């Protein structure tokens, strides 16, 4: 949880578009193609500053990935007891995981064909 909070604070204070030391996408460096996560740092930075349309423009998949990621974080570190078990059943449901994986690879293909 501390690592997650630290990463969010770092992304709040440092704009990835202006910082040359921010990590670059290894997939893009190796292949020249954009992975589904390309732009996620910039999108997170924009979202943390309340610029949700700008965040969306950096990575359209952000609208699906961020809520799922937040659900996982809340389920793992916040919820307890019955609430945790219920959230776990929803988050780890095979249909949701399958949808997440399919949209991940669909976005990989779509963004590179359309050069988004």
Provide a brief overview of the structure.
The protein is mainly alpha-helical. The chain contains seven helices and no strands.
Features:
116 residues, mainly alpha, 7 helices, 70% helix, globular
Characterization of the model:
The protein has 116 residues and is mainly α. It has seven helices and no strands. It is globular, with a radius of gyration of 16 Å. The model has no long low-confidence stretch (mean pLDDT 89).
**Beta content:** under 5%
Radius of gyration: 16 Å
Low-confidence stretches: none
Query: What is the 3D form?
Result: globular
The profile of the biggest β sheet is: none
Secondary-structure-based class equals mainly alpha
Number of strands: 0
Q: Can you give the helix content as a percent range?
A: 55-70%
What's the number of helices? 7
| Average of per-residue pLDDT values | 89
First CA to last CA: what distance?
32 Å
């Amino acid at each position: 949880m501390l690592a997650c909070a630290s990463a969010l604070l770092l992304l709040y204070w440092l704009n990835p578009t202006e910082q040359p030391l921010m990590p670059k996408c290894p997939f893009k460096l190796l292949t020249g193609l954009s992975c589904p996560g390309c732009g996620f740092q910039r999108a997170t930075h924009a979202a943390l500053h309340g610029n949700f349309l700008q965040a969306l423009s950096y990575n359209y998949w952000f609208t699906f990935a961020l809520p799922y990621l937040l659900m996982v974080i809340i389920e793992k570190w916040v919820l307890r007891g019955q609430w945790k078990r219920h959230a776990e059943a929803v988050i780890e449901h095979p249909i949701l995981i399958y949808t997440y994986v399919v949209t991940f690879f669909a976005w990989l293909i779509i963004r590179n064909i359309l050069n988004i």
